[in-house]
Amino acid sequence: MDYIYASVIRDIFRFKEQVILKECNSLEPHSGDIGLFEVISETGGYEAVEDHTGNLYPLKKGSKFWGCFGNRYSGVNLYGNIPTERISSGEIFDLLALGGIVGNILCPGNLQKDRKTTKVKFLGFAQSRYTGKILNLRDYSLNSKLVEYKNSEPQYIFVFGSSAEVGKTTFVCNLANALKQNYSLSILKICGTGRLKDKMSYIRTEVSPIFDFVDFGLPTTYGICETEYTTVLEKMFNYVKNQSDMIICEIGGDMLEANAPTVLKLIHKLKAKTFFVVNDAMGALFGKSLFGQYSIDPYICSWKQNIYSLKEKINCERVYNIYTRDDVVDMAYRIFKGNN
Asked: What distance in Å separates the CA atoms of residue 237 and residue 313, rounded to the nearest whole number?
């Protein structure tokens, strides 16, 4: 039988002949544990799942997909977590994200159809045909120990936003297009919920290499302890820094979630240039205050605001209009012209 391989477990598709289904009775799930799920709801929630190629695959009652357990604490979408008790095959859970992340819903978002979730039945874990081990995303993580490093550190660029869906990914792509003629670049998605959509947007810039936290074993960066997350970040940076003059990093969601506060702590150590994409003056003011707690002075960028008005309201000169690609090119020249 053909199954859907969700984008969050994209690498298992290449090894699918090595994977068998393990029905279980009273086992504890962990973030990244891979399982087989069957859709049991007729309507509501997600009507598709993003597959391993990045395409949306329509779901209907009876559809089966390989996905994984994970947390998602979105400020604008679903809010749910990994089951906190032991689970067994046949139990019912919720599809928490288009990328194939499954858990228990705590609060559905307004963007969900009928404010409901797609209900799925857990059929069992993915098990290695050869070792008998229950498989986890971490088993497919890239190994940064294979990389030799340059003597000099690259310029790190962190892109934060005042909320989800504020335009961070579009800005990252426009910034990469503005810089790629003069610098070797890498793009990393380092915070958020795992799927391929943003990564595929990066790929269209023709910058390389490009990775996200899923490539390094995390389905999301919600509910991950700071120590583990910092270790994953170091692996991501080590994997690309010998190939890059600059590493552009997108922090998904807002500044309060998904380990974004952990990234704030690293900015001075990495001597990173920091950009803050905002929707309005209130969000800009709060974010500016939060950055100030870490003695960070970001470049504030907006698609929607009158820049002169925004400067006046937040009492800041480092404010840039990013409405068009040409605006981003002009901003990049003024900020990075001294790097040559």
From this structure: 36
Under 8 Å between Cβ of 59 and 48: yes
Secondary element (H or E) of residue 22: strand 19-22
Contacts of 162 (CB under 8 A, 6+ apart): 254, 255, 276, 277, 278, 279, 280, 283, 284, 286, 287
Q: What is the DSSP letter of 149?
A: P
Q: Is 228 helix (H, G, I), strand (E, B) or coil?
A: helix
In sequence order, the 6+-apart residues with CB closer than 8 A to the CB of 266 are: 230, 233, 272
Contact by Cβ (8 Å): 81, 71: yes
**Is residue 229 helix, strand or coil?**
helix
Query: 142 and 215 in contact (C-beta within 8 Å)?
Result: yes
- 182, two tokens: 């003069």
Query: Cα angle vertex 181, ends 173, 275, to 5°?
Result: 40
pLDDT digits (tens, 9 = 90+) for 15-68: 888 899 999 999 999 999 999 999 999 877 899 999 999 999 999 999 999 999
Angle CA 162–214–169, to nearest 5: 35
Tell me the C-alpha distance between 34 and 21, whole Å. 10
Sequence-separated (6 or more) residues with CB below 8 Å from residue 230: 262, 266
Tens-place pLDDT, residues 113-139: 778 899 999 999 999 999 999 999 999
Helix (H) or strand (E) holding 283: helix 281-293
Closest by Cα among 59, 40, 41, 43 to 51? 59
pTM (two decimals): 0.94
